[in-house]
Design brief:
This protein has one helix spanning about 20-85; strands at about 95-100, 105, 110, 110-115, 120-125, 130-135, 140, 145, 150-155, 165-170. It is of the alpha+beta class and about 170 residues long.
Length: about 170
């Protein structure tokens, strides 16, 4: 007895049947190719996002550093003017400049180091650092503070000889 495909009845019937294989194989190949393309896009985009985040953080650190330097130099000018115009009966010279800075740049906390030559800002993740030089005439106390609101102070107490020192502290 023969089946309608010309083979012996019951023998090789499923082995030679190729009717639904192309649909199933096509579906599996489509899913596999889609998964490979999707993973390639995700990997490619993550590299772009990381480099963009790094550039954004460095740009923001630069802006915060320039703002700090501008205020440090303003405090320097005010301190020199106050010391020069101090009356003889005045016991001390005080200058304070409050600076409102963000506590985070691009969602990342940062630290600021102020010394006699520059203001340096750093983040840990990603590891980024920006140094902004300043032109302050009076001495600057070397200080390291967290990012955020700052106070730049200058004090010359009665009886002290010479100029005072600018100090940057957290508010």
């Amino acid at each position: 007895m023969c089946d309608r495909f010309g083979g012996a009845f019951g023998r090789g019937r499923l082995a030679d049947d190729e009717r639904a294989v192309s649909v199933t194989v096509g579906y599996v190949l489509t899913l596999a190719i889609g998964a490979v393309v999707l993973s390639g896009v995700v990997i490619g985009v993550s590299g772009v996002i990381d480099s963009q985040t790094d550039r954004t953080i460095r740009g923001d650190l630069s802006v915060v550093g320039q703002t700090t330097v501008t205020n440090l130099e303003s405090a320097d000018r005010l301190a020199r003017a106050a010391a020069a115009d101090r009356p003889e009966n005045e016991s001390e010279v005080r200058v304070a400049v409050d600076v409102d800075l963000p506590t985070r740049v691009a969602g990342t906390p940062y630290r600021m180091t102020v010394d006699g030559d520059s203001v340096t800002l750093r983040t840990d993740n990603p590891d980024a650092s920006v140094e902004v030089p300043h032109a302050v005439s009076v001495d600057v106390e070397e200080t390291s503070v967290r990012g955020g609101p700052l106070r730049i102070s200058y004090v010359v107490a009665d009886g002290e000889a010479g100029p005072g020192t600018l100090e940057v502290t957290e508010r």
